[in-house]
């Protein structure tokens, strides 16, 4: 099995999950899905933009809606005007809190991240 190698051309990124229980978490994928639903007005379009099946996107939305006291996404069925989806006020708040926490952690940890990057093995010579 090959070992993962650092890419010296890539800037490190911070990714995190907030664990609320063993199978209950909010992470970057779910936050991105919420953001894409906000942008597209559609669960299927949001999923497609992330190379995700409609079923997978729908299951994640259902999971997030069950996690919180109030739903994060409201959807309407298709019809003559077509269906759609939108973030609720709770969905907007959850996404805003997650993104703000990510910015705080990235800003606060930038020096430590740079220090870790400086300690990475140099793989530029093809080791």
TrEMBL record:
Domain HTH lysR-type: 33-92
Gene3D superfamilies: Winged helix-like DNA-binding domain superfamily/Winged helix DNA-binding domain (1.10.10.10)
Superkingdom of origin: Bacteria
Pfam families hit by this protein: HTH_1
Protein name: Winged helix-turn-helix domain-containing protein
Native source organism of the sequence: Paracoccus maritimus
């Amino acid at each position: 099995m090959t070992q993962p190698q650092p890419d010296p051309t890539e800037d490190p990124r911070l990714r995190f999950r907030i664990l609320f229980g063993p199978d209950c978490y909010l992470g970057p994928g779910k936050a991105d899905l919420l953001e894409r639903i906000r942008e597209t007005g559609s669960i299927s379009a949001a999923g497609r933009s992330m190379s995700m099946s409609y079923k997978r996107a729908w299951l994640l939305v259902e999971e997030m809606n069950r996690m919180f006291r109030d739903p994060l996404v409201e959807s309407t069925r298709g019809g003559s005007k077509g269906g759609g989806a939108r973030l609720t006020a709770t969905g907007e708040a959850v996404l805003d809190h997650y993104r703000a926490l990510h910015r705080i952690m990235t800003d606060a940890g930038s020096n430590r991240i740079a220090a870790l990057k400086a300690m990475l093995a140099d793989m530029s010579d093809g080791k």
